[in-house]
Design a protein that fits this description.
The complex is a heterodimer of chains A (296) and B (307). Chain A has 296 residues and is mainly β. Chain A has strands at 5-9, 16-21, 26-30, 35-40, 45-51, 56-61, 67-71, 76-80, 86-88, 92-93, 96-97, 100-106, 112-117, 137-144, 147-152, 160-165, 171-176, 186-191, 202-206, 214-219, 225-229, 239-243, 249-254, 260-266, 272-277, 282-286. Chain A has a four-stranded antiparallel sheet with strand order 1-26-25-24, with no helix packed on it. In chain A, strands 2-3-4-5 form a four-stranded antiparallel sheet, with no helix packed on it. With 307 residues, chain B is mainly beta. Chain B has a single domain, classed as 6 Propeller (Neuraminidase). Helix content of chain B is 0%, strand content 46%. Chain B has no helices and 27 strands. In chain B, the strands form seven sheets. A five-stranded antiparallel sheet of chain B has the order 1-24-23-22-21, with no helix packed on it. The chains are: A mainly beta (296), B mainly beta (307). The interface between A and B is medium-sized, with 27 and 23 residues.
């Protein structure tokens, strides 16, 4: 089955990044423009959700409808509140500033799972804080209004780029490695216990040294992973793939543009797949034969 | 993360003829305050013979006296940044993280002088100076919305520009005096107050403006552009009594004559200066705030008194 992508928004300056469906519209990050934009499929219009986001990339929507973002430029996860203000969250992991979050997801308990990568572009502000000696997945637990605690989830990642939870939230999928930094890219699955502690990982996909691995992922209703990977520069071509929980690629589709970034299902019944990319656009494919997973 | 205090030194380079009028080749260095994370906002208070300074990340306003050392004045401080003294010798603070400008009253209470412009919350007031007519001038860049470790409770930006603001002497009126900077940071007046210098950390420049009697600015012009690979950007800036402009930049504190030519660079090996203040009875001590400490050295020319 051919996936027919159409450009529905953009192009923006630089790459587009994280995206999240809020039930009616698709929010997506124009990272370098420091804006979150909102595509409304009912009107076809794109409007501004927030400006001055500090190079925010990954987006996740909490149960209360508020939006969390991975602020690469400020080395923190930020929380966009309904009144138009924005709060920082916990920036310290065991007393030290963590790295540059690029992606995040929120589970049914409200815990925030963060891909805390090293980035090519340096953060904002005076260079007062070194990066952590590791780039890991972090988990942020709330213990009261505006109170968050960070803990380290993975101890064997090079630089996670994307995080995703299985439908039962008993597995954490981590796309690891940034080919632009010279990492070897992989896709891992970690079993999670009820406390959110990860067990021994299973490697689902191994990329070779010149291949651009997975940057963004979302979940289909059947539990398969939809992932953005590849580029024209080297190795595997820019592609959107369907990966089973066991690590088999069962479908490969040409990406709508080079350097596909992140993806999310949207539209009625989560029946369309949206993709962001290196050309700064937002793409959509309808009727791809798969739907997004509806989380309760 | 910080320079080791043991390696702190002050040296000079980029010397133009006559540079010795500014500083000796190997001036003394004393560490006067330790155990701070991000020093900023130094102001010498001649009346009380003490130095005010802040630790932005440590969220504290400090004072330091030569005989009794350092003492906490306010913690938390809404991550206060630049400080200055008004005509009544009250401390006025650019409240970076809290996005306000506030003043310490004689009874120790605090008064907010500004928190909004045209109905919208300020960016993050950075540095501040009081003119002899009592007007308060401060820069309002957006770094307090995103800088690592240096933000307050609301990090949403609301105003479109990055102004230099002026609060009128009666405190009733606030206007944007200049809006042509990308990231305005340090600011100071020439000794005769006919020129306002504003530096821009992002563009790595100093701009000069003519100050008109009605308090408006005109003739924005480039005064100096910084180049160089060393760490450090235009941040703290003060004038000396000869009208020379002292400004942090790559590698240390640069001193420019009124035409913009560089006279000397005061290199600050082992530490990263953020700001500085002239002080002591002769205004020839230079108190330098760093990432990690406050140090004092001596110079050969008096600074413009802070009050």
């Amino acid at each position: 089955m051919t996936w027919n992508f159409e450009r529905v928004a953009g192009p923006c300056k630089g790459r587009t990044g994280g995206l999240a469906w809020d039930g009616k519209t698709m929010l997506f990050s124009a990272v370098a423009e420091e804006r979150i934009l909102r595509y409304d499929p009912s009107s076809g219009e794109t409007s501004v959700f927030r400006r001055w986001t500090g190079r925010m990339n990954g987006i996740a929507i909490a149960k209360d409808g508020t939006v969390f973002g991975a602020q690469e430029g400020g080395r923190r996860v930020i929380h966009f509140l309904a009144d138009g203000s924005t709060e920082p969250t916990e920036e310290l992991l065991d007393g030290a500033h963590h790295n540059q979050p690029v992606d995040l997801t929120i589970d049914s308990k409200g815990r925030v799972w963060i891909a805390d990568a090293y980035n090519m572009q340096p953060p904002y502000g005076p260079p007062a804080y070194p990066f952590l000696p590791h780039a890991s997945v972090l988990r942020m637990d709330s213990y009261g209004p505006k109170l968050w605690r960070l803990s380290r989830v993975t101890h064997d990642t090079a630089g996670p780029r994307a995080v995703l939870l299985s439908p039962d939230e008993k597995a954490l999928y981590v796309a690891d490695g940034d080919v632009e930094r010279g990492d070897v890219c992989q896709l891992f699955a970690y079993p999670l216990d009820e406390h959110g502690v990860a067990g021994h990982r299973k490697t689902l996909l191994n990329f070779s040294a010149n291949e651009r691995g997975i940057e963004g992922m979302c979940l289909a209703s059947d539990g398969n992973i939809i992932a953005c990977m590849g580029w024209n520069r080297s190795g595997c071509a820019p592609s959107i793939v369907v990966v089973t929980p066991g690590g088999t690629i069962v479908e490969t589709h040409p990406a709508p543009a080079d350097v596909p970034m992140r993806c999310a299902f949207g539209d009625a019944d989560l029946g369309s797949l949206y993709v962001t990319a290196g050309d700064g656009a937002l793409y959509r494919a309808k009727g791809i034969g798969r739907k997004g997973l509806k989380r309760s | 993360m910080h320079g080791s205090l043991e390696t702190i030194a002050v040296e000079v380079d980029l010397c133009a003829p006559g540079w010795e009028r500014i500083i000796d080749p190997s001036p003394p260095v004393d560490i006067i305050a330790r155990d701070i994370i991000f020093g900023e906002g130094p102001t010498w208070d001649a009346r009380n013979e003490q130095l005010w300074f802040v630790d932005i990340i440590g969220d504290t306003i400090w004072k330091w006296k030569p005989d009794t050392g350092q003492e906490i004045v306010l913690r938390p401080s809404v991550k206060g940044n630049g400080t200055c003294l008004d005509l009544q010798n009250r401390l006025v603070v650019a409240g970076w993280g809290g996005r306000t400008v506030y003043r310490m009253e004689k009874d120790g209470s605090w008064t907010t002088l500004a928190d909004k412009w045209q109905g919208r919350k300020l960016n993050s007031p950075n540095d501040i100076v009081v003119k002899s007519d009592g007007s308060i001038w401060f820069t309002d860049p957006p770094g307090g919305m995103y800088n690592v470790g240096m933000v307050g409770p609301d990090i949403q930006r609301y105003i479109e520009t990055q102004p230099v603001f002026r609060i009128s002497p009666d405190g009733k009126d606030m206007t944007a005096a200049a809006e042509d900077n990308t990231y305005p940071n340090g600011l100071c007046f020439s000794p005769d107050e006919k020129i306002l210098y504003v530096n821009d950390s992002r563009e790595r420049v100093i701009r000069a403006y003519d100050v008109k009697p009605d308090g408006t600015l005109s003739k924005s012009r480039l005064f100096f552009k910084y180049e160089g690979p060393e760490r450090g950007v235009p941040d703290g800036m003060k004038c000396d009594t000869a009208g020379n402009v002292w400004c942090t930049g790559p590698g240390g504190i640069w001193v420019h004559d009124p035409s913009g030519k560089t006279i000397v660079r005061i290199k600050t090996e082992g530490h990263h200066p953020t700001n500085f203040a002239f002080g002591d009875d002769d205004w020839k001590s230079l108190y330098i705030t760093n990432i990690g400490s406050v140090v004092r050295t001596r110079v050969n020319i008096a600074g413009v008194p802070s009050r």
